[in-house]
Structures are given as structure tokens and as C-alpha cells.
Amino acid sequence: MKGTKAVTAWAAVVSVICAANLARAGWEYTAATKTEGQGSQGGSAAVAIKAWLDGDKARIEFIGGDNPMMADGTYLITQDAGKTMYLVNPKEKAFSVWNMHEMMGMAGGAMKMMNFKILNPKVETLERGSGGPVAGFATTRHKFRTSYGMEMSIMGMKRSSVVTRDEEIWTTDEVKDIAQSAWSRFSEMKFGNEELDKLIEMERGKIKGFPLKTVSVQMTRDQGGKEEVSRSVTEVTRLAKASLATGLFELPAGFKEQRSFLPLADDEPAGEDENEEQPDGRQQGTPDIEGLLKRLPGFRGK
To answer: Distances in Å between the alpha carbon of 130 and those of 66, 161, 212?
Structure first.
């Protein structure tokens, strides 16, 4: 179930990139993501967060969950709208630094090494209408279908798959100061893969307003005809303006910096078994590109 935990953690990470540039006044919100049937190993994973936002500053605390990298009580902070983030572990009195441009560049480099390609991307709007209240806000419900092909070569072996994802997204226009800038920081970040960056842009432009709930069902069929289905639900349960102390967004005094690990790779850093091959043909510690695509914010409407 490592793949499930890794991409669920990555979903939370990228949420910070977007959330960090959401507000021009203080806000706080709580949200939860649950993923089932993710990847070839199946299983499920969940993560809940509580967040505080103030302009370019954000703090995201992780509640519960079973990912060791983002254990209960750990939190992410940023003061530059997600360009640089710090993962803080109060129990260990330590923090690690994540430069998101560098991380996305590393993923882009891995894609280039794998000769990764996106083929025939298509985004369809199936329905749009009243969605009723979510977290106390009136919403519009959108239904989309996204499809594309993927090709890559790993360790000399070519792999291909076709992805179809159906999404329902509930958005609100009642928090315009959030919605207007929700994607501005993420839009500046590129993987350096023209086809993937174009697909992300297509996904990013399909809704207006602030997403409060997303239900996504994705089916992946590989070159041998094997199908995998995953379901993910993300929902904001509370969103309100708040007066925030500046200390919320500062690193605690006396905490030590420790090595950071790429959050879109496997859950555990490479060690004695660093050459161990994963079920999908990757070696431990290498980026899970397909998992990353499933959890990108534009791909799940977050």
C-alpha cells in the first residue's frame, strides 16, 4: 500500500501550493481526502488537514493518517505562496525544506529519462448545475470526463496505458478573494514536459470558483488489458475568515534541519533495498509518475 500513501501525501503537498496563494485576508479551513483502490497494490489511504492562510503565508497541519512522512501533528508552512515549503516534525524537533520548483524539475527530468509521453488528451464537460450547500456555501456542481494515453520506457521496457477519469466537482463563488488567485502560483510551476504541462493547463481551466468537494473515479487500462480503478473524495468541511498570529507561519526556534525526501516517490527513503523493483517496474525511490498524475490538483479538481 506504499503507492497509495505516497500519492495521497503528494495530494496534500500540492494542495499547499494552491492554498498558499488563495487568500488576501486570514482564513482557516479543514478538509479530508480519502483514496480507495489506488495502484496495483490496492488498499486505501486517508489524510485530514487543518489549514491557516494569510496572503502568501500558509500552515497546513496533518491530522491522523498512516503516512510516516506526514504523521499526526506534523505540518507544512510557507511564506512565499508555496515556492518553498518546510515540513516540520514537532516530536523530533526537526524540519526539512522543499523547493517545489526543484522537485517538479526533478520529476520532469525523470519523465525525460523514461521518454514519458501524454497522448490524445481530452477534457469533456458532461453536466453543470446547482450543487446545493457544501460547508455552508452555495455551490455549482460540475461533471467532467478526462481521457489520455501514457507511454514510457522503464529499464528498457516500454509501457503504455489509457486513463479515463470521471469527476464531480462542487465549487462556490461566495469566496471570490480565494477563487480569483487559487491557481496563480501553481500555474507558474512547470514539469518541463510540454505534453504534460499542456494537459495540466487544460484541466486547470475547466472550472471557475473555489472547489469545496471533489469525487473522482479513475480507470487505468494497461497495454495487456488489465484494468485498475481508484476512487478519491476530497471535501472541505469548514472554511471561515479568521484573525491569525504571525507566529503560525514561522519555524520553531531550536529545530534542526534534516534531509528531505522527494514526496512523489515511494514512502520510505532508499536504504539497503534501494535497488528493489516495485510492482510497476520502478526501482524504490524513483518517482511514481502515474501516481503523481492521479493526484495533481488539476486532475482532481482541488
So the answer is: 36, 35, 14
Which domain range does residue 21 map to? 2-300
HSE toward the beta carbon, residue 123, CA cutoff 13 A: 17
User: pLDDT tens-digit profile of 83-114?
Assistant: 788 999 999 999 999 887 777 777 777 888 88
Task: Name the domain count of the chain.
Answer: 1
Whether the model pTM is above 0.90: no
CA neighbor of 32 nearest in space, from 45, 17, 48: 48
> Residue type at 54?
D
